[in-house]
């Protein structure tokens, strides 16, 4: 990113922003989204003594699927998103669309 | 190269884990362990999971190791690898041990790194004199840096090598005699390997240097059949300990006396309480074992 | 070629036969050697699935495993610390032709990598609020103040609704009705033990980038305004302060003009 900018911000504007930030931050945290288990990252070790989770000092009985990656189609939750071509037209409301 | 007489001086015997049943500590159980404080003898962790800068893993391990004896089990040193030990990784192990001061540190009789790559599995060794020399040199290097005795775990294997000079028990005896390390006896691995190679588990057990055992591991295996319809056991840590392994464990305790015993479960992880029950079962075997004179 | 050379070459390439010099009691070497091959692949696939659970859910088990397998062939791990495995995964996904029907997949992977890195990032305490108040009381030096951020803080600019997609896969999130084709930026941070992801404007993301690069408050804020004229400095600071993401104040800017 360019280091140069022609803009300036006055000391008063900066102080106003920091002052409002401090008053917002002083409010009690919203309960929503503050769930105890909201780690976003699985509480799970990457290295483990079994194939189930990472490094194996144990084997796995499950032979992983060896389908040909180049012929596969993603079949997961992506099918449930509204796409720009979806009948609902939800995606057409998007201000920005993926280049195709 | 330094061998038997010196090795035991360089690597003083590590402090012992209590002769009780312990559990592998899984991140999924961190909060449960602190909330329920189960009555188990110790916890064991995989070293590599804690080679991170900060965050929940260190937070919870720090709290849990204030309340329980700790054992650290490495899965990444590649002691049997033909490549030199990764000095950076060895340093990470040393830093981790300095931080948590576990009662025990153990690694595997296996290789997992090759050239620049980490292959993420504990791969089998050909038991020949070149491998013996290399394994002992690597253990010397680790014990010298860590200034402690380590335990080496017997592997679960699925194939053997044509040109081996030793059988596995003899090889382990040689490694222990020459390097002064101890034995982490994985009874499940012993059983799995013996079935896979059509050997008698009890005869194998008796061939091992059991006086060097510093810890026992127990786990469950998966059972498959090979293309000839014969049993092929896979050490997947995905189920409770099998009855055949419990029986072999009892035979082991008769020979070693009460010994710190870890219940390992890595796949199909159940609730903590289930694992605590399995640890209780191990403690029943332990308490019915005579202390060896 | 010695045994470990031969063994490791064959493990990573599923189309080659097992190496010479191995045996088993009944001769069924193939099936038994396959256990090692399977361990290596399934272990690495699972390590990737642990780091990229949203990517996994977006494309499903079969596709994820096949894509991960292709990635592993190209980028086997180099470190035994598996939490660092797969940093090239997002770039790989971007170039993976079969995934092109899910164009936002690579950016979701980038976001998930930032989450893993935030999760394991070094610990740092939030700055004493009195220092912030003290800074507020000295408005003339405010512009030159450098805000130090928690090591887990990161931002990501995307042409897709990555934060919304990510959030939809947490807990009771709903993916129905989410339009992925909306420009969205995200800020990732670790507040205490929790990793949190916020959908933000590109100005806020640019502001975080500027602070991370050591720019002083005024310069970082001005650049954010250039990126997004609607950038709200007060809200951006409130987000960082209320999630303990500011860990220090440095009065002298060390930024070259």
Describe the biggest sheet of chain A? none
Shape of chain A: elongated
The averaged pLDDT of chain C comes out at: 92
Structural class of the helix and strand makeup of chain A? Answer: mainly alpha
Largest sheet of chain C, described in full? 3 strands, antiparallel
Q: What structural class should be given to the helix and strand makeup of chain C?
A: alpha+beta
Tell me the distance between the termini of chain A: 27 Å
Low-confidence stretches of chain C: none
- Total beta strands of chain C: 6
Give the strand order of the largest sheet of chain C, numbering strands 1, 2, ... along the chain.
3-4-5
Principal-axes geometry of chain C comes out as elongated
Number of helices of chain C: 12
| Unreliable runs of chain A | 31-37, 51-65, 84-100
Keywords:
heterotrimer, A: 100 residues, mainly alpha, C: 257 residues, alpha+beta, 2 domains, 3-stranded antiparallel sheet, two-stranded antiparallel sheet, 49% helix, elongated, signal (chain A), DUF2282_membr (chain A), DNA binding (chain C)
Short description:
Chain A is mostly helical.
Describe this structure in words.
Chain A has 100 residues and is mainly α. Chain A is 16% helix and 0% strand. Chain B is α/β, with parallel strands linked by helices and 293 residues long. Chain B has one domain (4-287): TIM Barrel. Chain B is 40% helix and 19% strand. Chain B is built from ten helices and 13 strands. In chain B, the strands form three sheets. In chain B, strands 1-2-3-4-7-9-10-13 form an eight-stranded parallel beta barrel. In chain B, strand 2 (43-46), helix 3 and strand 3 form a beta-alpha-beta unit. Chain C is α+β, with helices and mostly antiparallel strands. Chain C has two domains: 1-102, no CATH class; 122-257, no CATH class. Chain C has twelve helices and six strands. In chain C, the strands form two sheets. In chain C, strands 3-4-5 form a three-stranded antiparallel sheet, with helices on both faces. In chain C, strand 4 and strand 5 (194-200) form a beta hairpin. The mean pLDDT of chain C is 92. Classes of the chains: A mainly alpha (100), B alpha/beta (293), C alpha+beta (257). Chains A and C meet through helix 1 of A and helix 2, helix 3, helix 4, helix 6 and helix 7 of C.
């Amino acid at each position: 990113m360019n280091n140069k900018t022609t803009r300036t911000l006055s000391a008063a504007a900066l102080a106003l922003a920091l002052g409002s930030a401090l008053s917002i931050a002083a409010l009690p945290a919203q309960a929503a989204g503050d769930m105890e288990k909201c780690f976003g990252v699985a509480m799970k070790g990457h290295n483990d003594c079994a194939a189930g989770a990472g490094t194996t000092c144990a084997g796995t009985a499950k032979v992983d699927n060896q389908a040909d990656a180049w012929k596969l189609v993603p079949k997961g939750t992506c099918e449930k998103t509204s796409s720009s071509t979806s009948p609902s037209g939800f995606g057409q409301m998007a201000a920005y669309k993926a280049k195709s | 190269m330094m061998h038997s007489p010196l090795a035991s001086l360089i690597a003083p015997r590590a402090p012992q884990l209590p002769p009780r049943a312990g559990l592998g500590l899984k991140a999924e159980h961190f909060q449960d362990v602190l909330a329920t404080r189960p009555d188990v003898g110790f916890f064991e962790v995989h070293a590599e999971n804690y080679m991170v800068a900060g965050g929940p893993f260190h937070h919870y391990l720090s709290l849990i190791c204030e309340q329980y004896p700790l054992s650290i089990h490495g899965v990444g040193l590649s002691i049997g690898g033909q490549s030199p030990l990764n000095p950076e990784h060895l340093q990470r192990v040393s830093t981790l041990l300095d931080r948590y001061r576990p009662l025990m540190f153990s690694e595997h009789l296996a290789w997992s790194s090759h050239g620049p790559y980490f292959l993420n599995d504990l791969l089998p060794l050909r038991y020949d004199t070149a491998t013996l020399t290399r394994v002992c040199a690597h253990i010397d290097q680790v014990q010298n840096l860590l200034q402690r005795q380590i335990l080496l775990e017997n592997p679960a294997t699925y194939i053997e090598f044509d040109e081996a000079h030793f059988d596995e028990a003899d090889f382990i005896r040689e490694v222990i005699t020459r390097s002064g390390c101890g034995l982490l006896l994985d009874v499940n691995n012993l059983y799995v390997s013996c079935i896979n190679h059509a050997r008698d588990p009890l005869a194998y057990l008796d061939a091992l240097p059991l006086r060097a055992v510093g810890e026992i591991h127990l786990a469950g295996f998966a059972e498959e059949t090979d293309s000839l319809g014969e049993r092929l056991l896979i050490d997947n840590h995905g189920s409770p300990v099998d009855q055949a392994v419990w029986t072999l464990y009892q035979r082991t305790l008769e020979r070693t006396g009460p010994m710190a015993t870890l219940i390992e479960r890595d796949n199909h992880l159940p609730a903590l309480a289930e694992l605590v029950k399995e640890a209780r079962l191990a403690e029943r075997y332990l308490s019915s074992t005579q202390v060896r004179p | 070629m010695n045994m470990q050379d031969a063994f490791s070459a064959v493990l990573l390439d599923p189309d080659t036969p097992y190496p010479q010099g191995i045996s088993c009691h009944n001769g069924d070497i193939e099936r038994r050697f396959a256990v090692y091959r399977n361990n290596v692949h399934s272990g690495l696939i699972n390590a990737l699935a642990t780091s990229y659970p949203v990517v996994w859910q977006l494309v499903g088990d079969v596709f994820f495993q096949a894509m991960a397998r292709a990635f592993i062939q190209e980028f086997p791990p180099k470190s035994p610390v598996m939490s660092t495995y797969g940093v090239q995964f997002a770039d790989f996904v971007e170039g993976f032709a079969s995934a092109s029907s899910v164009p936002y997949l690579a950016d979701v992977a980038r976001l998930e990598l930032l989450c893993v890195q935030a999760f394991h990032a070094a610990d740092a305490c939030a700055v004493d609020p009195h220092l912030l108040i003290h800074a507020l009381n000295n408005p003339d030096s405010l512009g030159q103040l450098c805000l130090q951020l928690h090591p887990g803080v990161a931002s990501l600019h995307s042409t897709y609704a990555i934060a919304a997609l990510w959030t939809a896969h947490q807990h009771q999130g709903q993916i129905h009705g989410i339009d992925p084709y909306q420009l969205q930026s995200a800020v990732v941070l670790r507040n205490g033990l929790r990793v949190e992801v916020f959908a933000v404007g590109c100005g806020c993301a640019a502001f975080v980038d500027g602070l991370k690069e050591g720019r002083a408050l005024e310069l970082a804020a001005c650049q954010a305004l250039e990126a997004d004229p609607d950038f709200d400095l007060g809200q951006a600071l409130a987000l960082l302060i209320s999630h303990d993401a500011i860990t220090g104040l440095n009065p002298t800017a060390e930024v070259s003009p």
